[in-house]
């Protein structure tokens, strides 16, 4: 039976495919140890807070005016940051930003998807992807990843040949599995899309890219040779700025020009631009935590394996582990002990975000009790 919302909606012209749907979102609960949405556990330092506050005050003095619609200063700062982080030097015209990489992805599907077009991905993967497709009336096709959560390249090729998608969405590292795409897989997917009539944009979503292990490449390295490749990043994770809502991408300037058509005018507020630029000026300090989080991630993988659990290799700031006959009971048991993780991924698995050493101790202690490890 439809809930009260659905019955009230019957009197409204809500789109047929939206009636009765629940909004996406993990529970926001007030518990001591939050390890459920892959945030950075480290708040900005007081120095960074002071600089952000100063930049916001400056921006406030001009809030009677609309912000810079092209946010060129922010795009230049993001390009400079990427040059240091990845060794790839994008031009300002190759960089685009929006309110989180969620909005980046929406812009991409608004420009390259739409009615009569298809977006393709491979599950398990980020659960917002089908929502961007739905919201832009893009047909959604989802294949499966292999048992070890890597891509089965023959199957990927077969899906691309059969469905001729205009957009392929691949998260690397993938959420919720932590699996990164090796260079050969990125190149194979790009090669497979060469044959799509009408063209195909390959989006590599590197929301967790900065946490990649040594030897794992960034898809940024392939941009120079592939005008249909888009690499998406965010300030929400490694940068520890989830509350500011800043995502960005790097692609051929022709891709960016298409996004400039679909974005709302002034979509990035002057306050957002000021916050992001002030934080980017402290990139070194904010990124200093990434090494520690990576080490804590590797230690968590090792600890879970030592206790006999199955753990997916992770290049991200979270770990998918299992398998539990009743994963909900384990999730609830942890929550009862003040530790919130995420019940996501294939049946039997759970995902924990990497927190501070103290938070990970609380997680391990609670898991030992709950799962009897
Ligand atoms: N892509 C992936 C794979 C994610 O896991 C997330 C956040 N959970 C996002 C994109 C969106 O992040 P944001 O909008 O904060 O940049």
Automatic annotation (TrEMBL):
Q: Which GO terms describe its molecular function?
A: histidinol-phosphate transaminase activity; pyridoxal phosphate binding
* Stored Pfam families: Aminotran_1_2
Give the catalytic activity. L-histidinol phosphate + 2-oxoglutarate = 3-(imidazol-4-yl)-2-oxopropyl phosphate + L-glutamate
The pathway to which it is assigned is:
Amino-acid biosynthesis; L-histidine biosynthesis; L-histidine from 5-phospho-alpha-D-ribose 1-diphosphate: step 7/9
Question: What EC numbers are recorded for this enzyme?
Answer: 2.6.1.9
Give the Aminotransferase class I/classII large domain ranges: 33-367
Name the keywords, alphabetized.
Answer: Amino-acid biosynthesis, Aminotransferase, Histidine biosynthesis, Pyridoxal phosphate, Transferase
User: Where does the record place the modification N6-(pyridoxal phosphate)lysine?
Assistant: 237
This protein's cofactor list reads: pyridoxal 5'-phosphate
Broad enzyme group? transferase
Single Gene Ontology BP term?
Answer: L-histidine biosynthetic process
Query: What InterPro entries does its record include?
Result: Aminotrans_II_pyridoxalP_BS, Aminotransferase_I/II_large, HisP_aminotrans, PyrdxlP-dep_Trfase, PyrdxlP-dep_Trfase_major, PyrdxlP-dep_Trfase_small
Subunit-level organization:
Homodimer.
**Which NCBIfam families is this protein grouped with?**
hisC, PRK03317.1
Could you tell me which PANTHER family the record lists for this protein? HISTIDINOL-PHOSPHATE AMINOTRANSFERASE, HISTIDINOL-PHOSPHATE AMINOTRANSFERASE-RELATED
Name the family the entry cites.
Belongs to the class-II pyridoxal-phosphate-dependent aminotransferase family. Histidinol-phosphate aminotransferase subfamily.
HAMAP family annotated for this entry?
Answer: HisC_aminotrans_2
What is the name of this protein? Histidinol-phosphate aminotransferase
- Gene name of the encoded protein: hisC
């Amino acid at each position: 039976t439809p809930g009260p919302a659905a019955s009230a909606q019957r009197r409204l012209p809500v789109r047929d495919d939206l009636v009765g749907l629940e909004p996406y979102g993990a529970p926001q609960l007030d518990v001591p140890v939050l390890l459920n949405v892959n945030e950075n556990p480290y708040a900005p330092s007081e120095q960074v807070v002071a600089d952000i506050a100063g930049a916001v005050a400056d921006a406030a003095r001009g809030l009677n005016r609309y912000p810079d619609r092209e946010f060129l200063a922010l795009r230049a700062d993001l390009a400079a940051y990427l040059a240091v982080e990845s060794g790839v030097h994008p031009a300002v015209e190759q960089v685009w930003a929006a309110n989180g990489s969620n909005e980046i992805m929406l812009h991409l599907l608004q420009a390259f998807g739409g009615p009569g077009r298809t977006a393709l991905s491979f599950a398990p993967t980020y659960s917002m992807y089908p929502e961007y497709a739905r919201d832009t009336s893009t047909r959604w096709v989802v294949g499966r990843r292999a048992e070890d959560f890597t891509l089965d390249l023959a199957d990927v090729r077969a899906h691309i040949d059969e469905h001729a998608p205009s957009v392929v969405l691949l998260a690397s590292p993938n959420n919720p599995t932590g699996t990164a795409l090796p260079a050969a897989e990125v190149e194979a997917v790009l090669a497979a899309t060469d044959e799509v009539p009408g063209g195909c944009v390959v989006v590599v979503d590197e929301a967790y890219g900065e946490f990649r292990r040594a030897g794992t490449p960034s898809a940024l390295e392939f941009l120079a040779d592939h005008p249909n490749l888009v690499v998406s990043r965010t300030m929400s994770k490694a940068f520890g700025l989830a509350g500011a809502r800043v995502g960005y991408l790097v692609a051929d300037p022709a891709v960016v020009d298409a996004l400039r058509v679909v974005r709302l005018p002034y979509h990035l507020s002057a306050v957002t631009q000021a916050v992001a630029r002030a934080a980017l000026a402290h990139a070194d300090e904010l990124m200093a935590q990434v090494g520690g989080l990576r080490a804590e991630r590797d230690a968590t993988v090792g600890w879970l394996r030592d206790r006999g659990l199955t753990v997916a290799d992770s290049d991200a700031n979270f770990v998918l582990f299992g398998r539990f006959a009743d994963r909900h009971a384990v999730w609830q048991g942890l929550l009862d002990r003040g530790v919130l993780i995420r019940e996501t991924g294939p049946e039997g698995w759970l995902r924990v975000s990497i927190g501070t050493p103290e938070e990970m101790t609380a997680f391990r202690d609670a898991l030992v009790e709950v799962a009897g490890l």
